[in-house]
Amino acid sequence: MPTTHNASLNAAIGRFYDQSTDLWMDVWGEHMHHGYYGPEGKAEVSDYQAQIDMIEEVLAWSDVGTPKRILDVGCGVGGSSLYLAEKFGAEVVGITLSPVQAERARARAEAAGLSGRVRFDVRDALDPGFEAESFDLVWSLESGEHMPEKPRFINTCIDLLEPGGRFILVTWCHRVTPPVLTGSEYKLLDQMYRAYHLPYIVSIEDYRVLAENAGLDEIKTADWSEAIAPFWWAVFRSALSPKSVAGLIRSGPGTLKGAWAINTMIRGFRRGILRYGLLTGTKPEGAS
Ligand code: SAH
Predict the structure, then answer these.
(1) Which of the listed residues 3, 75, 150 should we mutate to test ligand 1's pocket, taking the one with most ligand atoms within 8 A of CB?
(2) Which residues make beta-bridge pairs with 161?
(3) Which of 11, 42, 94, 138 could form a disulfide with 81 if both were Cys (CB 3.0 to 4.6 A apart)?
């Protein structure tokens, strides 16, 4: 059962996305994750294309095969869910804490003629209530940072995989430690936590240890901080457009706080405190 602390965090995350999602969709579209701007962040592509490229690059990097039953953990408005459903002809379940996101995602699935095999639920990834081994791909694109218990998050994702299935985690990380984080680094992280309702983040090496402990095999990690470097500047520019400014005012203080923290994200990545981490691996055959 979720702890009281998780329940209030989850409620805050749900509210944050309920209030900010329409504005994001209006300005950015259906993908609520970083763009991939070439390995060194120098490719001149549109921001939308960069977000699609992110999905494709992650799939290529993780050597995913052809999954047929996919769980999209922290699905937003189903940007990845629908993309993966179409690409692989797969069944997809997307879960989010935001009822507004689930509704928008269902409408998008309906419009794409995919509602027969793509479903969206409001569920907690730490207590999802699915049967073990229900999926052959568990995909988490920028939701891990919101999870209050990282070991339980990783264990649950791997538990839901069938043997031979693949786990893909792409998430906001802090730099690898040691050396231990300094006071000023913690201060910056704390500003980000408050603005985006994150309990805490860890390094990609910390995730590797968790995945190893959970029995994941063929683990591979990467740091794509360079590839995403132009992203927060693009968010910053888009936040200054008249449409955004009007929308920000309408969406309320939580969303405004998020917009203000764009500069924290830019500083965090520039100083190397924030890192864009990836982890993939497979569940061993014969494991349960
Ligand atoms: N993966 C999507 C959305 C990323 S935004 C995309 O790339 O477009 C982060 C998402 O994580 C939101 O949908 C939020 O509701 C979800 N999330 C955060 N914590 C969660 C939890 N404990 N359980 C389920 N979803 C969660």
Answers:
(1) 75
(2) 135
(3) 94
